[in-house]
Amino acid sequence: MLDQSKQAMPRFTFDIEGCTINTFHIEKCGEGHPKHVHDYDHVTQVHSGKLLVTTPHSVFEMTKDTKPIRFPANEWHELEALEDGTVFCNIFGVGKYEQRLVTDM
């Protein structure tokens, strides 16, 4: 189970053409982004390893072979690494850094 108190921080972050790209390198299985919500859409793409994605509608795994997924604004989601060394990116509009942890299921 994902530790709700330990949120992953991006290893790299940069802005280009109106987008921000945050690249996360998750060292240990079970780490990632606890259940949270944004006021904006964003896309997640896995580059290596395996990510467990949980939303109000589904639970599924993502790998480098999985099509990137768009998370709609105001819908909670959780991202948990299922393998050590998982690498993924979150992509969103420049200046859209706010997120709120969600503590009720």
Please explain how this structure is put together.
- The protein has 105 residues and is an all-beta fold.
- The chain has one domain: Sandwich (Jelly Rolls).
- Helix content is 0%, strand content 50%.
- Strands 1-2-9-4-7 form a 5-stranded antiparallel β-sheet, with no helix packed on it. It has a 5-stranded antiparallel β-sheet with strand order 6-5-8-3-10, with no helix packed on it.
- Strand 1 and strand 2 form a beta hairpin.
- It starts with 11 loop residues before the first strand and ends with a strand.
- The mean pLDDT is 87.
Describe the structure concisely:
This protein is mainly beta and 105 residues long. Helix content is 0%, strand content 50%.
Write the layout of secondary structure elements.
Blueprint: E1 12-16, E2 19-26, E3 32-37, E4 42-48, E5 51-54, E6 59-62, E7 69-71, E8 77-81, E9 86-93, E10 100-101
Antiparallel strand pairs: 1-2, 2-9, 3-8, 3-10, 4-7, 4-9, 5-6, 5-8
CATH-level-2 architecture = Sandwich
| Helix percentage range | under 10%
The side-by-side strand order for the widest beta sheet comes to 1-2-9-4-7
Number of strands: 10
Question: Number of helical runs?
Answer: 0
Shape: globular
Give the name of the CATH superfamily: Jelly Rolls
CATH class: Mainly Beta
Determine the structural class based on helices, strands and strand pairing. mainly beta
